[in-house]
C-alpha cells in the first residue's frame, strides 16, 4: 500500500480530485520531489540544440551491406551490439539524411515501450533510426552526459512515461521531452557525472572492436554468402524436416568448402547443456529474492534487474542461476530477424543471476573454450547454423539434443588470440556498464536526499 501526505494546493491543481491515483503516480511524485530541489530548475530544451525524430518515408530493405545502411528500431537501440541490424537501401530510401545518427546524442523511445534511453557513441554514428526514436541533440557547451544520466534515472524515466494525472502515455513528442524539468546541479557534480558517461561510452566502443575482430575471423574463414530462398535438394539430403531454414544450403556449402577435420560435434567441447523446466514466476522484494532477467532483457547493453525471483516457484533455484563463462542461447522465436539463436555469455554482472527457462545453458570446463564458441556463434555462419537446428512450425525452437550434435570449428592456431579478444571485450563491456550505472546512481542518491 502506498501512502502520501499532500497539501491543499495539490487538490486545487488537480481539480479537487479525491481519488488517490493522480497524487500517487510516479510522475507526480517526482515533480513533488523536484519542488524541494535546492538548485535552480531548467528543462531539456535548455540543454538542446534540437529535439526531433526521423522521417516517415517508405523504407526499402536490402541484404547487401554495400547497398544498405544499418537501421534500428526503438528496441534495437538498447542492444549490447549492433551487428545484426536490418539494412535499408541507400538508393531507394527518400530523405535518408533524416534517418542518420551522430555521436553524443540522447535517444528516447517515443512509442510502444516509451521512455527507454541510450547515449550514442561511434557505434551509432552513420546508422539510421526509425521515427519511433526521439533524438536529443545537445548543445556543445553543456554536460550532455549529465542530461543523459538524469533522463535514464528512475526520476527521468518516470517523467518521460507518466502523465500529470497518472495515466500511462501511449507516445511522446519532442515538445513534451523538451519541457521535462531538469535540476541544475553544481558544475562540478554535473561534470563528474558527464565524464563517467563519456568514459563508459568510450569503453563500450573499444570493447566492441575486440568483439568485432573475433567475429570477423569466423565470418571470413567460414563465410555464408547470401540467403538462397528457392532451391532444389535431394530427399536423401534433407535434414530432419522439409522447412527451408532446416536445409540452408549456404550452411551446407560452408562444411563442404572446408576440411571436415576442422569441425567437431559440440558435445565433445562442452561439459553440459540443458534448459531448466518451466516454472511459476513468484517475485519478491529485492532483499528477499534472486535477481532475474528475461531472455529479451539479455539483449540489452545495460542489464538492470527489475525482478527478484522466489525459490518457492522452482524445484532448485540453482538450476536457474548462471556462472561466469556459461553460454546462453535463446531457444525460441522466429528465424527472420528474431531473437531465436541469439547467443550471450555470462559476465561479472550476470554471474549469479536467474534466467528464463527459454534460455539454454551451455557449460564448459574452460573459459577459453567458452570464448571460442561464443565468438563463432556470434558470427553470421554460427547464427545460421543455430537457426538451422530449430524445429516447429508456428514458433520454431531449438532442442538441446540437436544443439549438442551441431558441428562447430575446433580450436586451431587462432584459438588463444580469439579467447583473449573475447576476454578483453567482456572486461571492458562490464566496466562500461559500471561507469554508466555509477553516474545514474549519483543522480538518484542526490535527488533522494532532498526533503
CATH superfamily of the largest domain: DNA methylase specificity domains
Domain module count = 2
Strand order of the largest sheet: 2-9-6-7
Gyration radius (Cα, Å) is 24 Å
CATH topology of the largest domain: Adenine-n6-DNA-methyltransferase TaqI, Chain A, domain 2
Q: Sketch the major β-sheet.
A: 4 strands, antiparallel
Overall structural class, as computed from helix and strand content, comes to: alpha+beta
**Unreliable stretches, pLDDT < 50, 5 or more residues?**
11-17
Main features:
single chain, 451 residues, alpha+beta, Adenine-n6-DNA-methyltransferase TaqI, Chain A, domain 2, 2 domains, four-stranded antiparallel sheet, 34% helix, endonuclease activity
Structural description of this entry:
With 451 residues, the chain is of the alpha+beta class. It starts with 7 loop residues before the first helix and ends with a helix. About 2% of the residues have low confidence.
What is the topology?
Blueprint: H1 8-13, H2 21-24, H3 26-34, E1 41-43, H4 44-47, E2 48-53, E3 61-62, E4 68-72, E5 86-89, E6 106-109, E7 117-119, E8 128-129, E9 133-138, H5 144-152, H6 154-161, H7 174-178, E10 181-183, H8 187-221, H9 249-256, E11 263-265, E12 272-274, E13 290-293, H10 295-298, E14 307-309, E15 327-330, E16 343-345, E17 354-355, E18 359-363, H11 367-378, H12 380-388, H13 400-404, E19 407-409, H14 415-448
Parallel strand pairs: 4-8, 13-17
Antiparallel strand pairs: 1-10, 2-9, 3-5, 4-5, 6-7, 6-9, 11-19, 12-18, 13-14, 15-16, 15-18
Amino acid at each position: 500500500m502506498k501512502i502520501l501526505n499532500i497539501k491543499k494546493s495539490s487538490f486545487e491543481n488537480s481539480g479537487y480530485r479525491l481519488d488517490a491515483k493522480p497524487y500517487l503516480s510516479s510522475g507526480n511524485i517526482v515533480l513533488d520531489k523536484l519542488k524541494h530541489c535546492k538548485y535552480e530548475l531548467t528543462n531539456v530544451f535548455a540543454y538542446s540544440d534540437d529535439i526531433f525524430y526521423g522521417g516517415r518515408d517508405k523504407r526499402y530493405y536490402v541484404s547487401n551491406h554495400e547497398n544498405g545502411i544499418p537501421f534500428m528500431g526503438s528496441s534495437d537501440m538498447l542492444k549490447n551490439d549492433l551487428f545484426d541490424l536490418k539494412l535499408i537501401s541507400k538508393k531507394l530510401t527518400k530523405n535518408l539524411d533524416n534517418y542518420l545518427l551522430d555521436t553524443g546524442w540522447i535517444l528516447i523511445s517515443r512509442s510502444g515501450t516509451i521512455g527507454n534511453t541510450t547515449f550514442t557513441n561511434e557505434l551509432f554514428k552513420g546508422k539510421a533510426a526509425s521515427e519511433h526514436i526521439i533524438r536529443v541533440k545537445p548543445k556543445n557547451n553543456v554536460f550532455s552526459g549529465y542530461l543523459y544520466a538524469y533522463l535514464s534515472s528512475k526520476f527521468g524515466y518516470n517523467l518521460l512515461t507518466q502523465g500529470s494525472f497518472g495515466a500511462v502515455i501511449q507516445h511522446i513528442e519532442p515538445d513534451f521531452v523538451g519541457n521535462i524539468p531538469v535540476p541544475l546541479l553544481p558544475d562540478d557534480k554535473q561534470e563528474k557525472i558527464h565524464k563517467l558517461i563519456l568514459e563508459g561510452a568510450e569503453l563500450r566502443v573499444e570493447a566492441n572492436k575486440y568483439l568485432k575482430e573475433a567475429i570477423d575471423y569466423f565470418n571470413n574463414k567460414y563465410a555464408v554468402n547470401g540467403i538462397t530462398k528457392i532451391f532444389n535438394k535431394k530427399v536423401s539430403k534433407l535434414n530432419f524436416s522439409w522447412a527451408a531454414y532446416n536445409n540452408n544450403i549456404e550452411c551446407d556449402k560452408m562444411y563442404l568448402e572446408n576440411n571436415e577435420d576442422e569441425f567437431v560435434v559440440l558435445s565433445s567441447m562442452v561439459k553440459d547443456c540443458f534448459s531448466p523446466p518451466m516454472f511459476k514466476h513468484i517475485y519478491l522484494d529485492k532483499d528477499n529474492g534472486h535477481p532475474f532477467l528475461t531472455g529479451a532483457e539479455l539483449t540489452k547493453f545495460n542489464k538492470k534487474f527489475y525482478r527478484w525471483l522466489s525459490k518457492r516457484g522452482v524445484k532448485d533455484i540453482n538450476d536457474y542461476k548462471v556462472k561466469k563463462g556459461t553460454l546462453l542461447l535463446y531457444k525460441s522465436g522466429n528465424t527472420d530477424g528474431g531473437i531465436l539463436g541469439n547467443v550471450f555469455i555470462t559476465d561479472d554482472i550476470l554471474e549469479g543471476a536467474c534466467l528464463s527457462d527459454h534460455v539454454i545453458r551451455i557449460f564448459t570446463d574452460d573459459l577459453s573454450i567458452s570464448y571460442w564458441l561464443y565468438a563463432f556463434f556470434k558470427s553470421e555462419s554460427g547464427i545460421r547454423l543455430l537457426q538451422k537446428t530449430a524445429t516447429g512450425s508456428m514458433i520454431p525452437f531449438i532442442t538441446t539434443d540437436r544443439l549438442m550434435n551441431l558441428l562447430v570449428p575446433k580450436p586451431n592456431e587462432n584459438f588463444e588470440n580469439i579467447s583473449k579478444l573475447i576476454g578483453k571485450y567482456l572486461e571492458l563491456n562490464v566496466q562500461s556498464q559500471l561507469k554508466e550505472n555509477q553516474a545514474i546512481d549519483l543522480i538518484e542518491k542526490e535527488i533522494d536526499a532532498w526533503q
